[in-house]
Design goal:
Layout lengths: L10 H24 L9 H38 L6 E4 L1 H11 L3 E8 L6 H9 L2 H14 L4 E6 L4 H11 L10 E5 L9 E6 L4 E5 L12 E4 L2 H17 L4 H8 L4
Parallel strand pairs: 2-3, 3-4
Antiparallel strand pairs: 1-7, 2-5, 5-6, 6-7
Helix pairs in contact: 1-2, 3-5, 5-6
């Protein structure tokens, strides 16, 4: 790689190191023979101390140069590998929601999962579902799915109320007539890994995962990846969940009964 190349002939590598001792020796000889202090027989003493001071200054300067070069190499190394990082932390679930909300106008399709355990419900409500950021996102989903955005939700019975809320924002209670917003339910509450797949209008795909509040006393840090293999893995998982899910038949049956 470019940042590991040797300097031509090794000259640039050794020159700063040798300059100090050579310059110090020259200072000693000149000070000794010229004897600017007129010390005659003892002229070697100031010449020695002066050469030592010059050597120390030179070595200090070489250290400064090497530190600067090391910092430059580190920056170049970071630039070289940052594009190959497969996973990057986004932050808290609330920060991840803001990230998604800011990109809704430029997204083509979203596939989202919403699974909770009984033990994690209280914490997830406090830190996630009961926040203004989440409420704003639900309204934004309804607005964008009236346009071009395709949004698919799949979750457990704990998520059903939220899915129906999006339908109400859209203006219908029937998931079959909610424009480009669709949702399905998985009736059993087996632990599932939560994730959300984003596809931008320019074809870029991302997955955000590790949303779960199951850790005792520790909130999750949401991770994001654009790695094609990771995207493929989560896409297959979503498709399997979607095939296993059922539509909200209770809601549709309720709404199909004429009001008196």
């Amino acid at each position: 790689m470019a940042f590991f190349e040797k300097d031509k002939g090794g000259v640039a590598v050794w020159l700063p190191i040798m300059t100090g001792p050579i310059f110090s020796l020259v200072v000693f000889v000149l000070t000794y023979w010229l004897d600017p202090l007129s010390l005659k027989q003892t002229s070697g003493i100031p010449a020695f101390f002066l050469s030592v001071i010059v050597l120390m200054i030179a070595q200090w300067w070489v250290t400064v140069i090497e530190v600067r070069k090391t910092a430059a190499y580190s920056d170049r190394l970071y630039d070289a590998i940052k594009d190959y990082l497969h996973v990057t932390p986004v932050g808290s679930p609330e920060q991840a929601l803001r990230y998604i909300s800011s990109r809704l106008p430029i997204l083509r399709e979203v596939k989202n999962t919403s699974f909770n355990t009984n033990e994690s419900l209280e914490r997830s409500d406090e830190k996630f579902y009961a926040t203004k950021v989440y409420d704003d996102l639900l309204a934004a989903i309804a607005q964008q799915t009236r346009k071009e955005l395709i949004w698919k939700d799949i979750g457990d019975l704990h998520a059903l109320t939220r899915f129906r809320q999006i339908c109400r924002h859209i203006g219908t209670a029937n998931p079959r007539s909610s424009g480009k917003y669709k949702y399905k339910i998985i009736g059993h509450n087996d632990p599932q890994l939560n994730f959300i797949l984003l596809e931008h209008v320019d074809g870029i795909k991302e997955v955000l995962f590790n949303w779960d509040f199951r850790g005792l006393g520790q909130d999750p840090t949401v991770l994001i990846s654009r790695d094609s293999h990771i995207i493929e893995m989560f896409t297959k998982q979503f498709n399997l969940l979607w095939q296993s899910g059922t539509e909200d038949h209770d809601r549709m049956a309720t709404r199909s009964v004429p009001e008196k």
